[in-house]
Amino acid sequence: MFQYQGNNGWQPLKYPGLCEKLLAKSQTVAGFFLIHYAHLWQEHLDKLFDLYSTGNLKVHSILLAHPLVSHYVAVDPKRFNGLDSVADAVEHLHSGKSFGKVVVCVDPQFSKTMAKL
After folding, report:
1. InterPro entries from the entry (predicted)?
2. Could you say which of 2, 4, 72, 80 would form a disulfide bridge with 89 (CB–CB 3.0 to 4.6 Å)?
Protein backbone atom coordinates (compact mmCIF):
# COMPACT_ATOMS: atom_id res chain seq x y z
CA MET A 1 0.00 0.00 0.00
CA PHE A 2 2.89 2.37 0.64
CA GLN A 3 3.46 2.52 -3.12
CA TYR A 4 0.22 4.51 -3.55
CA GLN A 5 1.65 7.59 -1.82
CA GLY A 6 4.36 10.10 -2.61
CA ASN A 7 6.02 10.94 -5.89
CA ASN A 8 6.39 7.28 -6.81
CA GLY A 9 2.69 6.54 -6.26
CA TRP A 10 0.21 5.25 -8.80
CA GLN A 11 0.32 7.09 -12.09
CA PRO A 12 -2.32 6.58 -14.79
CA LEU A 13 -0.80 4.93 -17.85
CA LYS A 14 -1.84 5.22 -21.46
CA TYR A 15 -2.25 2.03 -23.43
CA PRO A 16 -2.53 2.96 -27.10
CA GLY A 17 -4.83 0.67 -28.98
CA LEU A 18 -6.22 -1.05 -25.89
CA CYS A 19 -9.81 -0.07 -26.63
CA GLU A 20 -9.47 -1.34 -30.20
CA LYS A 21 -7.96 -4.63 -29.03
CA LEU A 22 -10.79 -5.16 -26.54
CA LEU A 23 -13.42 -4.25 -29.14
CA ALA A 24 -11.92 -6.59 -31.74
CA LYS A 25 -12.18 -9.50 -29.27
CA SER A 26 -15.58 -8.44 -27.86
CA GLN A 27 -13.93 -8.35 -24.44
CA THR A 28 -14.84 -6.31 -21.39
CA VAL A 29 -12.75 -4.87 -18.58
CA ALA A 30 -14.54 -4.45 -15.28
CA GLY A 31 -13.33 -3.36 -11.88
CA PHE A 32 -14.09 -1.15 -8.96
CA PHE A 33 -12.31 1.22 -6.64
CA LEU A 34 -12.94 -0.02 -3.09
CA ILE A 35 -12.94 3.44 -1.52
CA HIS A 36 -16.06 4.28 -3.56
CA TYR A 37 -17.92 1.77 -1.39
CA ALA A 38 -16.66 2.91 2.02
CA HIS A 39 -20.23 3.65 3.08
CA LEU A 40 -20.93 -0.12 2.92
CA TRP A 41 -17.92 -1.30 4.92
CA GLN A 42 -19.46 -1.17 8.41
CA GLU A 43 -22.60 -3.06 7.39
CA HIS A 44 -20.60 -5.88 5.84
CA LEU A 45 -17.98 -5.99 8.58
CA ASP A 46 -20.84 -6.37 11.06
CA LYS A 47 -22.22 -9.28 9.02
CA LEU A 48 -18.78 -10.93 8.90
CA PHE A 49 -18.35 -10.48 12.65
CA ASP A 50 -21.78 -12.00 13.31
CA LEU A 51 -20.98 -14.99 11.09
CA TYR A 52 -17.64 -15.48 12.83
CA SER A 53 -19.00 -15.08 16.36
CA THR A 54 -21.78 -17.64 15.71
CA GLY A 55 -19.34 -20.15 14.23
CA ASN A 56 -20.73 -19.85 10.70
CA LEU A 57 -17.49 -18.37 9.38
CA LYS A 58 -14.32 -20.38 9.95
CA VAL A 59 -10.78 -19.04 9.64
CA HIS A 60 -8.60 -21.69 8.06
CA SER A 61 -5.30 -19.87 7.85
CA ILE A 62 -2.96 -18.82 10.61
CA LEU A 63 -1.53 -15.37 11.16
CA LEU A 64 2.21 -15.10 11.31
CA ALA A 65 4.36 -12.16 12.32
CA HIS A 66 6.72 -11.72 9.40
CA PRO A 67 10.19 -10.38 10.27
CA LEU A 68 10.43 -8.26 7.11
CA VAL A 69 7.09 -6.46 7.38
CA SER A 70 5.35 -4.59 10.16
CA HIS A 71 2.10 -6.54 10.01
CA TYR A 72 0.74 -10.05 10.19
CA VAL A 73 0.22 -12.16 7.09
CA ALA A 74 -2.24 -15.03 6.61
CA VAL A 75 -0.32 -18.21 5.84
CA ASP A 76 -1.80 -21.41 4.42
CA PRO A 77 -1.40 -24.22 6.97
CA LYS A 78 -0.10 -26.69 4.35
CA ARG A 79 3.70 -26.82 4.47
CA PHE A 80 6.03 -27.14 1.50
CA ASN A 81 9.72 -27.73 2.19
CA GLY A 82 12.60 -27.48 -0.27
CA LEU A 83 12.86 -26.49 -3.90
CA ASP A 84 11.52 -29.88 -4.94
CA SER A 85 8.13 -28.90 -3.50
CA VAL A 86 7.70 -25.69 -5.53
CA ALA A 87 5.63 -27.41 -8.24
CA ASP A 88 3.37 -28.92 -5.57
CA ALA A 89 2.99 -25.51 -3.92
CA VAL A 90 2.01 -23.87 -7.21
CA GLU A 91 -0.46 -26.69 -7.88
CA HIS A 92 -1.94 -26.20 -4.39
CA LEU A 93 -2.22 -22.46 -5.04
CA HIS A 94 -4.06 -22.99 -8.33
CA SER A 95 -6.30 -25.73 -6.92
CA GLY A 96 -8.48 -23.24 -5.09
CA LYS A 97 -7.87 -25.09 -1.83
CA SER A 98 -5.27 -22.69 -0.46
CA PHE A 99 -5.97 -20.11 2.24
CA GLY A 100 -3.70 -17.08 2.60
CA LYS A 101 -0.11 -17.12 1.39
CA VAL A 102 1.32 -20.38 0.12
CA VAL A 103 4.88 -20.59 1.44
CA VAL A 104 7.76 -22.78 0.33
CA CYS A 105 10.43 -23.04 3.02
CA VAL A 106 13.71 -23.32 1.12
CA ASP A 107 15.95 -23.33 4.18
CA PRO A 108 14.81 -25.87 6.82
CA GLN A 109 16.90 -24.01 9.41
CA PHE A 110 14.77 -20.88 8.91
CA SER A 111 11.82 -22.33 10.85
CA LYS A 112 14.11 -23.22 13.75
CA THR A 113 15.61 -19.71 13.73
CA MET A 114 12.16 -18.10 13.70
CA ALA A 115 11.02 -20.30 16.58
CA LYS A 116 13.84 -18.92 18.75
CA LEU A 117 12.85 -15.28 18.14
Report:
1. Zn-ADH-like_protein (IPR051397)
2. 80
